[in-house]
Design a protein that fits this description.
There is one protein chain. The protein is α+β, with helices and mostly antiparallel strands and 192 residues long. The chain has a domain at 3-124. The protein is 64% helix and 8% strand. It has helices spanning 3-7, 21-28, 32-41, 56-65, 71-74, 85-94, 98-173, and strands at residues 10-13, 16-20, 51-53, 81-83. A 4-stranded antiparallel sheet has the order 1-2-4-3. The chain is rod-shaped.
Length: 192
């Protein structure tokens, strides 16, 4: 049986990944009523953490949110039972047929594949979170560097303005001195 088909029949209800009784009955190629009877005959194998019945609210929510459900099931007056991975394992012990064994193995592979996918997704999410935090640090550092550069260039501009003002003040204050300079070269003496 194709793992992808099985994964499409696994739902998240009450924080657990579960399969519904009608999907399991369909996969085991038996009527849902026969599956429920087998469970009732062996109810001690199905504690609350292995199997539970959906509430009216949970069922309505699932029907509303999930378009994969068969239309005949959506309007059923009987609330379905949900089986966890452990419940599916117990169910395969109750339904003893070659089909049940093959279906059980396929379902277990699907649950394992989903668990691996979720674990990989959580690793990717953790890496993304770390990348985000590093990016925020780089962004903060860039902002601080830019502010420091702006402060520095303002300081440099002020210093240049001060230097130019000083040069301007000096050029106004110092008039050109007119001194007679001694000529350069040989001196010619006047004849006496």
């Amino acid at each position: 049986m194709d793992i992808q088909i099985i994964q499409n029949k696994i739902y998240e209800i009450r924080g657990q990944r579960v399969m519904l009784d009608f999907d399991l009955a369909n996969m085991y190629q038996i009527p849902t009523k026969a599956l429920k009877q087998a469970v009732k005959r062996n109810i001690e194998r199905f504690p609350e953490d292995f199997m539970f019945q959906l509430t009216e609210k949970e069922w309505r929510e699932l029907v509303t949110n999930c378009d994969r459900l068969p239309s005949t099931i959506k309007h059923s007056s009987v609330l379905p039972s949900a089986f966890t991975q452990e419940g599916v394992a117990s169910l395969s012990g109750v339904l003893k047929s070659p089909i049940a064994v093959n279906v059980y193995l396929s379902i277990m592979r699907a649950f394992v594949a989903m668990r691996n996918y979720i674990m990989q997704s959580s690793v990717v999410l953790a890496e993304l979170a770390e990348f985000r935090s590093r990016l925020l640090l780089v962004e903060r550092d860039c902002r601080e560097n830019l502010e420091a550069m702006n402060d520095l260039s303002e300081d440099v501009r002020r210093d240049f303005d001060t230097v130019f003002e000083a040069i301007g003040a000096l050029s106004v204050k110092l008039p050109e001195a007119k001194k007679s300079r001694q000529p350069i070269g040989f001196k010619i003496r006047e004849k006496e």
